[in-house]
Design goal:
With 626 residues, the chain is of the alpha/beta class. Helix content is 41%, strand content 17%.
Amino acid sequence: MNGRENTEMVKPKTEDKTGHADQADKADRVADANHANHANHANHANHANHANHANHAEEAGTTPDQMPQKPKMPYQHYGSAVPLVLPDRTWPNHRTTVAPRWVSVDLRDGNQALVDPMDPERKLALFKTLVEVGFKEIEVGFPSASQTDFEFQRMIIEEGLIPDDVEIQVLVQCRDELIARTFASLEGARRAVVHFYNSTSTLQRRVVFKQDRAGIVDIALHAARLCRKLEATVPGTRIRYEYSPESFTGTEPEFAVEICEAVMDVIEPTPEHPMIVNLPATVEMYGPHVYADVIEWFGRTIRNRESLVLSVHPHNDRGTAVAAAELAVLAGAERVEGTLFGNGERTGNVDIVTLAMNLFSQGVDPELDFSDIDKVRRVAEHATRMPVHPRHPYAGDLVYTAFSGSHQDAIKKGMAAIGDRYDQWEVPYLPIDPKHTGRTYEAIIRVNSQSGKGGVAYLMDTEHGLDLPRRLQVEFSRTVQAVTEATGTEIRPAELWEVFTGTYLPDDAGIRLVGNEVTTGSGRTRVVAQLLVDGVHRTVQGVGNGPIDALVAGLRSELGIAFEVRDYSEHALTSGSGASAVAYVEAEGPGGERWWGVGMDSSILDASLAAVVSAANRAPQTAREA
């Protein structure tokens, strides 16, 4: 087999199948499998349908004939696509351990799908980014079909913009004049892949080309012969060939083998100079598991497998292109063609960013560098004029962000547990460390009306250095939720700080601590506090078993504010408002009601006394009337 094995289990090899009798026998087996498959589908569907109708009728007290008919989608106009059944499939037992060969088709397939195709400046910016990311094979255009593509290709060749380790690829239909112009576009290139194709599907044979199988094979063979002939026109270029039976998913698998083998006879690949056989899901017509079955069957069946590189080109019509590509690799595909972020016709090509990062998340070297994924995204958005969705895997603005309270709490605890240094990344709800894609932790948690104490506490800690006690988290999160429900949107870290200070450290507080004097003797502590109470200077004195207890006693006797301190905590601050310490006190009033006060100052003693004053300011009326 050519190239690296990219799965842990080596695929079984079979003998070459060269006889027509074998091909006919294979066709019969495929037909029998299809017949059985469709029969089973029909039986299951009919059984389920009758059972459902009977159940609904019984519940409603009517017979099925009396049931009102609800409008339905016209599903009867469609049929399942299962071209073969592979009962001895082996791909489910494989595990990907090495990245496949990646091929970017952004500049060709992706460009063809744009409302406004890329101009040379945008194309060049994207080409350079693809090189920086690490692509070694890049399909740069369709030079025979587009003058812009032709000129761009000539520019990167003539200006020496193609690195020595990067191979460009060009696409061309199986038409003489287009093939000739394609070879002209390659003059001066060190090496290139000439990717020629023609559609082989049953539908296009019947509707578009009005040709039988033999006619379709002739188209491919004529193109292959012309390519070999034109090699002499580019003597300084090392040419490799890629052939695609376009609309492979609409083609009978045995016919795809037949036409690819016929092309191979002309190209004459060897294990040292292999040919690429690309099997495109031009339209994604069946599930990824079926695609994998067909890929494995194809790899087992085609002769001279060791002289081929088996490539796939999944599209995303069913929304399962990533799954199809991953399973195809398990099934023996060695090469994957796709685009950054999945740009392409209709629902797009397979998304190589997601494929590569999926490998990364499983501990496999993706061999592409997305350590600055935002930069890659910016260039792609500039080049394509298409935004990347905020929920796009790995690259979207919100993919590392949690709004849900339970998610936030788990992330907060996970981040605290793992610390800055770790051997194995393990944080709930975060499959990878955002820093490995160039993201910071700032946006991991954002707070809205769905958030809970965990999210609020995380932001207060990471953004402002406050490690709020758990019950204070609960109390403050209720205040935050009232704000977010009133505004109907999220609250930013700066706004969160404004709510916190407005609640616990307001500038216009009724009681303000101006100064204090603390003395200790005979096991008792005396506090003399200078306060401004509604703008009037007051001196409050109290005695207790510590400064906090003494100030609480003074507030009770001098101002009539009665409460006890039930919890107290403190910690140093690394930044924030010029303070170096913060203290938290939980107060309990005469009726059992509880609330919190917060103090910040340059000393922990002054911060603790300020926290008591904060609690006094927030005391409910019942505590003031005691």
